[in-house]
Amino acid sequence: MPRLKIRGERPVYKEVVIGTAKPVDERPLRADAKRNRERVLQAAKEAFAAYGADVPLDTIAASAGVGAGTVHRHFSTKEALITAVVADRLDGLADRAERCAASDDPGETFYAFVADLTLEAAHNLVLTSALGGAALGDDGARAGARLSTALGELLERGKASGEVRADLTVADLHALLAGVIEAQRRLPSDRAGFALEIAVDGLRPRP
User: Which pTM does this prediction carry?
Assistant: First the structure.
């Protein structure tokens, strides 16, 4: 896959607004069309994670090794592509949260999931916006609701194990994670884990 070409030494982050995507043709895709769609999605994931949503579609097309017309055939607007990327990532996180909830040690897997989620989101502007409540379109909203449900189940298992404080709610956890993610983005790289350590200490049961 060609390397993504972005001018400038450092990306300029801007707030991402993810709107309702314009529907596209949902007929079954041919094998080659499906491969092209997956290549575009992968290129978009890498670009949006590293540089935010301002990456031009032409740049994503070049990185995926397809023409701009191919991108537009699968995703009618950039918002549609962002929504697809976010929904895919949120579904992946929901899958993992569900596996963690089924673990024999839900307390420790709860903390491992929280750590991985915050560290990833701190370096992924589009995911940060999605977790922060940005409008996601139908697919993104569905995936976001699924993640919230899975996270709630994982939290309840952690509380039942005695490893997570009993008065913590899902709403509390969402707000706390948003704060940790923002703190990790602001802190120097050698202190990025400090906010998470403080948060985890607060999530554990009181003596």
Answer: 0.71
